[in-house]
Specification:
Strand order of the largest sheet: 3-2-1-4-5-6-7-8
CATH superfamily of the largest domain: N-(1-d-carboxylethyl)-l-norvaline Dehydrogenase, domain 2
Number of domains: 2
Number of helices: 16
CATH topology of the largest domain: N-(1-d-carboxylethyl)-l-norvaline Dehydrogenase, domain 2
Helix content: 55-70%
CATH class of the largest domain: Mainly Alpha
Distance between the termini: 74 Å
Order of helices and strands: EHEHEHEHEHEHEHEHHHHHHHHH
Largest sheet: 8 strands, mixed
Length: about 375
């Protein structure tokens, strides 16, 4: 695999971090973004106008708005918002050479089609008679961790195991751990679905902050949800063509990314927290996007994933259902999540979940009963 030229689509946080890191491995790095107000300051000042102030882009890296320049790349990284992939590749396929390695970092489903990022890429390539080696990369890989030298953990998936190994070597080091798999669908889905569950975790955090007197209740219910989320994600993944082992709690693509996204101050967890605090979902989406200069992909992914399951006419997984309701039906987050806690307690699937529910499920159910009785008393007065 030639390392003469590497291109990165998207000059956001992760795209810029990738450009800085890969500059040490390739002779030339091309950083593409459609927005000149992003690429021009990078090219002239060697610094990102929004992220990582003071982190200079090395001299062998070049920022551009010209897609034709990307055609020189032997390896191409996708660090775009999921909605930007199709329009970019519909143009890019006219310039790309056959056999290029396309590595996807995007974590969202295309709105309307429910397509995975690499499915969108494959459609664009096939429509123009082009072929490429498609690689999926996902895990706990924050841009800030990459530039600060903190640990990153990813799964790299490709049907060609040699290509996956070569991509993983681009970032190999004592602070960057990669595992190789051929489950391209599963690795993409894991990164996409953890955003949904991070929103759910944030909903509980917001409710607990809004009403500290019920923090134990919300903590108990959140524990039920979070333990069972792995079993639910695995069920959805298998339904959509993934392998079950990709959704093991010890996997990088799922377990490491899922746990960290639900626990720390991540974009999608923050979105859920704002909704739990009482902000309307669309307002919370705009607020988080403005504050972080990035859009929380889990918002639209929740709707797209719900649409896929509805189309397949199978029983809606409870955590997905009770995350979707506060976001898109106007249902009160407290009511929906507490109903979900009782529903999940009754049909819990995992061994760890059964042990946990045995301790706290009855408490959550009794607390929900008290909430409903208090609501009924208020309405009768």
């Amino acid at each position: 695999m030639s390392l003469d030229t590497i291109a990165i689509l998207g000059a956001g946080q992760l795209g810029y971090a990738n450009a800085v890191s890969l500059s040490a491995k390739a002779e030339r790095v091309i950083l593409y973004d459609r927005n000149a107000f992003v690429t021009e300051p990078i090219e002239s000042g060697r610094n990102h106008p929004r992220h990582f102030r003071g982190l200079m882009l090395p001299g062998n890296a070049h920022a551009t708005t010209n897609l034709e320049e990307v055609a020189a790349a032997h390896i191409l990284f996708i660090d775009l918002h999921s909605e930007g992939i199709r329009p970019v590749f519909n143009q890019l396929v006219h310039y790309l050479k056959d056999g290029v390695v396309v590595v996807n970092d995007a974590k969202g489903l295309e709105q309307g089609t429910h397509k995975l990022p690499l499915q969108v890429v494959q459609e664009a390539l096939a429509a123009n008679g082009r072929n490429a080696t498609l690689v999926a990369r996902s895990g706990w890989m924050l841009a800030a961790n990459m530039v600060n030298g903190n640990a990153s953990y990813v799964d790299v998936a490709c049907e060609d195991a040699y290509a996956a190994e070569e991509v993983s070597r681009l970032f190999s080091g004592s602070r960057f751990k990669a595992r190789i798999t051929t489950d391209v669908t599963g690795v993409q889905l894991a990164g996409i679905m953890k955003n949904v569950y991070a929103i759910c975790a944030g909903l509980f955090d917001g409710l607990a902050k809004a009403d500290p007197s019920r923090s134990k209740l919300y903590g108990a219910a959140k524990a039920i949800y979070m333990v069972e989320a792995t079993a639910e994600a695995r069920q959805i993944g298998i339904l959509l063509g993934a392998r079950p082992e990709t959704f093991h709690i010890n996997s990088y693509a799922w377990g490491m990314d899922y746990y960290s996204s639900c626990r720390y101050d991540t974009l999608n967890r923050l979105l859920g927290e704002q909704i739990g605090l009482g902000m309307k979902p669309d307002s919370a989406y705009k607020f988080v996007s403005q504050v972080r200069n990035r859009t929380p992909e889990g918002y639209h992914t929740t709707r797209e994933l719900y649409g896929i399951i509805s189309f397949l006419e199978v029983k809606m997984p409870p955590i997905l259902k009770h995350t979707y309701e506060p976001l898109f039906t106007g249902k009160d987050a407290n009511q929906s999540l507490m109903e979900g806690a009782v529903e999940i307690s009754a049909g819990v699937r995992s061994h760890r979940g059964r042990a946990l529910v045995k301790r706290i499920g009855r408490f959550a159910a009794r607390a929900l009963g008290r909430i409903n009785r208090a609501r009924a008393r208020r309405l009768s007065q």
